[in-house]
Amino acid sequence: MAEPYSPDDILASFHPIVKQWFESRFKAFAPPQRFSILNIRNRLNTLISSPTGSGKTLSAFLAILNELVSFSEDKSLEDKVYCIYISPLKALANDIKRNLLDPLKQMEEQAGHKLGIRVGIRTGDTTPSEKQAMLKHPPHILITTPESFAIMLSTTRFREKLISTQWVVIDEIHALASSKRGSHLSLSMERLQSQTYFTRIGLSATVAPLDEVARFLVGYDHDKQDFRDCRIVDVNYAKQLDLKVLSPVENMMKATYAELNDSTYRIIDDLVQGHKTTLIFTNTRSATERVVHHLKDRYPQHYTELEVEEDEAEEEMERAYEGVDRAFAKDGSKASYKASQRSLPSKSSEPHPLPRSLIGAHHGSLSKEHRLSVEEKLKRGELRVVVSSTSLELGIDIGYIDLVILLGSPKSVARALQRIGRSGHQLHEKAVGRIIVLDRDDLVECSVLLKTALERKIDRISIPKNCADVLAQQILGIALEEVRSSEATSAKDGSRPLAPKHVDEVFKIVKSSYTFRELEKPKFMEIVKYLSGEYASLEERNVYAKIWYEEESGMMGKKGKLTRVIYMTNIGTIPDETNIKVKIQDHLVGFIAEPFLEKLKRGDVFVLGGNTYEFQFTRGMTAYVKASVNRPPTVPSWYSEMLPLSYDLALEIQRFRRLMEENLTYNTRKEDVLSFINSYLYVDSYGANSIYEYFSEQYKYAEIPNDKKILIEHYADGSKKRVIFHTLYGRRVNDVLSRAVAFAISKIHKKDVELGISDNGFYLAFDKSIQATRAFNAIKSQDLRKVMRYALDATEVLRRRFRHCAARALMILRNYKGNRKSVGKQQMSSRLLLGAVKRISPDFPILEEARREVLEDLMDIAHAEEVLTQIEEGKIQVKEAFTDIPSPFAFNLMLMGYSDIMKMEDKLEFLRRMHNMVLAKIEMKERRKTSLDRA
Predict the structure, then answer these.
(1) pLDDT digit string, tens, across residues 612-625
(2) pTM for the complete prediction?
(3) How many Å apart are CA 723 and CA 561, to the nearest integer?
(4) d(C-alpha 703, C-alpha 714), whole Å
(5) Which helix H or strand E contains 332, and what residues bound it?
(6) How much is the pLDDT for 916?
(7) Which one, of 390, 419, 410, 388, lies nearest residue 292 by Cα?
(8) Sign of the dihedral through C-alpha 164, 169, 173, 179
(9) Residue 648's closest CA among 374, 452, 791, 931?
(10) Which of 42-46, 278-282, 786-790, 909-913 has the lowest mean pLDDT?
(11) Distant-in-sequence, close-in-space partners of 777: CB < 8 Å, separation ≥ 6
(12) How far is Cα 8 from Cα 726, in angstroms, rounded to an integer?
């Protein structure tokens, strides 16, 4: 949409009660409201993309509330669901209920009578009695989650309340679309669409590409042979941004650990003291706890205040006086009574003050009760600062925030804007964000991120396609649907008969979903055959038919008495995870998180409890290791928690690298290069100087890798030969490239290589010279998927992801007959099941889905193929460098594993020594060049 509607036209569409309410509380319509309210009133599908706090939620609900108020006043409001609001978070659902009930209450006060508009929540926390009450009096606006929505579609009695739905609102659609929850929801929407026509409304923070998210929202219309129409409201310009990158010290390579640490916390404290309420984002849970501890420890006077617990103090005083009264009653002596009274505090005296913390931590490892307590205190203004990892990114109402601090890079422009958008939670207020960088890579990354954020270049999200496990779950859900009561012929027992469906009808519903639009009929039929029990050998692993299917008639339906219960108790896409035991033979060493285990390959070294261990293999939920004293860690403990750098932002950084190389080639004066840096980036003088020094050193010592040039750097580290690939494409792309190269090398040398991965590249290590460049050049884009299939075949990540997919496809039941299957038992079942499906076919659909999930969702094979294609077309050069010491751009990659065994001050000292050695090499090089020039 290019032009908004006029405010007069919007107001003219309002019922008098709604109009009076709006005008009494708002001076004008917010930009998203001017674009969208009349769309929704006119039943036009609408995607609203705007910053947090810009009024998009009210944009969706004003038109809907207006209609419901009109129905209420006309006495035509029926006992049915008119609007379904779907939220990815239960906490967000509770916020929305509050934010809808308040306006309704205010409208009723203005009208002078009850409107009778009901708002209800149905999630996994809803009690059976509440569900029963909803059947008698269904909410007119139903707030739910994707999983509960799918359950309701297959719940016989409640489904009848949904078949007249007029609006479906999906909040935080950007967070859902990029995951299997979104794929699942997309199919649920099409299931509802097959019963009734409704208007779809998507609410999103800053997201790209908007046209693809819009197609995800509305789905495909088979009659039109095109995607359904959708109005796109893009008002991300509506909120002003005040963003800065802060470097804590003038020169990061010369500063000591104490100087860097002191300066960082001093900057944080100064920023917090200069604002009312601050939200600090870190990238890991451990960093969240560390920041809270340091701020409390260093500045106790700023993060603790004395408060009076009046209720407790009064109770204590009353108990004291009651004790004196009892003593008098027992003794009866006036003198003893007076003596006792003199020892009591005066009732008019102030109670003793108690310390209260003004800082809180909020992350996923903390209890639900703790997180809710922090959120409520934040809303009430009782906290000066809250430190979070990722748990406060989505739009939960946390009250007024006037500053957001990001410690380190958020790794994507969209995430940065989402986090910083939590500040200035009113449309007219600026979103104020400060990014504090902790090393030179971080400085470059955040400076480029800031530029792209201010220029509104948003990273593109990736929407999963043709997820076979989700498809299996939803086909069963469709088979469980029953005919409407008006169409059903009652059976003798009064039950409603099932409505068998033709397989082509089900396929048409599935193909209406954007996420399954490209699904081919044979792939669909493979899932139908699996669900109908065609693979009899799976019964040995307790996988039984859940539907019946007649090939001649093409009809299908539910099979088995317990199928409905199995579906209802195992629905959803979020996998169960737990901690993994780590053992040396039978001796328990400790525990690691399951996502961390996924990253391990045989021979990888990691730190646990201060000791280093080499990973061997797993059995069930136990990882077996051996002590490793001679090798440094190859996988840091925080690796699985770290957010990956987005591919689009990586390309922007690579482009800046190329521009810097050009400037250093043609501008010999430092002032000229600094002038370019200051004109291109938004950095302070400290930052500009650090960037210049960093690039100048890399340029003089080796070469600057960029979007047109991959640098392969060889150097010897003692007895080991290391090869560093400077491929700044983000960790997801590098995961693919590194595994493919390592697989190729293992075939050449008949031995596995050591491997380390980061966003900026990857390294390989071997005990003799390796033909890394030959292996890299041998991998072709058209063969990459085949190579990766072999490379993944026996990996831990594929085994774990197969368990997740098998559980979604209901091959492994997490809940059965009231008993919950532990994750350990699920994994054991998965291991046996994996062998069974491989015997049926190495291309069994759920195993293929596990491979697809690893390569496309966890990794990024599409962009890895794009990189290889550009190499093949000559658009990207591959160059080699041979060095004695790693080049400056390689420092952090080489130190990645050491972070667990070196203290921070030792790591910085080690970096400083390497840096000084590089500077000495550069000086020797320049002296030699000068001598040659003279000669």
Answers:
(1) 788 888 887 888 98
(2) 0.86
(3) 60
(4) 13
(5) none
(6) 86
(7) 388
(8) negative
(9) 452
(10) 909-913
(11) 878
(12) 58
- CA–CA distances in Å: residue 431 to residues 285, 380, 389, 404: 24, 21, 19, 8
Average pLDDT for the chain? 85
CB 496 within 8 A of CB 685: no
Beta carbons within 10 angstroms of residue 825's beta carbon: 14
Does an H or E element contain 549, and which?
Answer: strand 547-549
Tokens coding 346:
């005066």
Q: Is the dihedral of CA 437, 442, 448, 453 positive or negative?
A: negative
3-class secondary-structure state, position 729: coil
Phi/psi of residue 922, nearest 5 degrees: -60, -45
The region, left, alpha or beta by phi > 0 then psi within -120 to 50, assigned to residue 116 is left
Q: Rounded CA gap, 858 and 41, in Å?
A: 40
Could you give the maximum distance between any two Cα atoms of the chain, in Å? 115
Residues in the chain: 935
Q: Which residues touch 271 (CB under 8 Å, ≥6 apart)?
A: 278, 403, 405, 434
The torsion angle over the Cα atoms of residues 198, 203, 206 and 212, rounded to 10 degrees, is -20
Residue type, 82: Y
Distance from the first to the final alpha carbon of the chain: 69
CA dist., res. 136 & res. 139, Å (int): 10
Q: 401-420 burial by CB neighbour count: b if 16+ within 10 A, else e?
A: bbbbbbbbbbbbbbbbbbbb
Tell me: pLDDT of 483 over 60.
no
Pair type for strands 877-882 and 709-717: parallel
CA angle 711, 717, 719 (to 5 degrees): 130
Residue 680 backbone dihedrals phi, psi, to 5 degrees: -90, -40
What the block records as the tokens of 376 is 């409520």
Q: Side-chain half-sphere of 624: how many Cα atoms within 13 Å? A: 7
Tell me which residue of 762, 779, 767, 697 sits closest to 723, measured CA to CA. Answer: 762
Mean pLDDT, residues 558-565: 89
Q: Is the dihedral of CA 303, 309, 312, 317 positive or negative?
A: positive
Q: What is the mean pLDDT of residues 796-804?
A: 92
Task: Compute CA 495 distance to the chain's CA centroid, rounded to the nearest angstrom.
Answer: 44
Residue 135 and residue 170: Cα distance in Å, rounded? 23
The tally of CA atoms less than 13 A away on the side-chain side of residue 109 is: 8
Name the strand (E) or helix (H) holding 435: strand 431-436
Q: From CA 46, how far away is CA 214, in angstroms rounded?
A: 8
203 is written with which tokens?
Answer: 């609410």
Residue type at 185? Answer: L
Pairing outcome for strands 605-608 and 754-758? unpaired
What separation in angstroms does the CA of 629 have from each of 60, 612, 633? 60, 7, 10
Check: CB of residue 35 under 8 Å from CB of residue 238: no
Alpha helices, DSSP H only, in 366-454?
Answer: 368-379, 413-420, 440-454
Higher pLDDT, 722 or 231: 231
* Cis status, amide bond into 209, omega within 30 of 0: yes
All residues at 6 or more sequence positions from 22 whose CB lies less than 8 Å from its CB, including other chains: 11, 14, 62
What sign does the CA torsion over 346, 347, 348, 352 have?
A: positive
- How far apart are alpha carbons 621 and 906 in whole angstroms? 35
Q: Residue type for 349, please? A: S
